[in-house]
Give the backbone structure.
Amino acid sequence: MSYLLRLVVPDRPGILGAVATALGRAGIDIVSVDVLERGNGVAVDDIVVELAEDRVADSLITAVTTVPGVVVESLRPFAGQLDTYRELELLESLGRADGGTQQLLADGLPRVLHAGWAAVLVGSGDGAAVVAASPAAPGLDGVPLPWLPLAAPALLPSEGAWVPELWRDMAVEMMAVPYDGDAAVLLGRSGGPAFRRSELARLAHLLGIAATVTRLPPT
């Protein structure tokens, strides 16, 4: 089974090697590594690992915390696409598409950004409409969205006053970015970790490119 580990580690040479060695000694395979942030002497890394079915998830935490200074921010099952070129593959699929690009974004962005779900919205407040959503996206009918229309990328944590009580109980973390004029893309994941500003910037950059790609004639 695959898991996504988010680690806060000292930003010094060899630290990822030490983490990889600790996991290897525990018989745990690393599938991919994304460096999310670096600054103030620390780095934040997302590491996807493969754990044998007869192993418990806590063994991941035990392994990585043998490395001095490593902190586990979150651990959750991961069922996304495990490859190095997720962004490029999504943009390539948008370039080949003749329509349906919003659904392609909704389906592809959760894999790219290790999120649980995505939705493309148009309109504002109570009049917002979902024009595309990934299969795991929650129903948005009747949910007030006072942050629409969206003028700039925004982090939308689960304790916001507009967030339904069930979502708060599930600790649904969200971020949203304007897309191609009057639309917005909303990404969420349950149980954390909270989206970081580096992830928000990555989504905004990717959507800016996607908006340009979708205006080109399909290849």
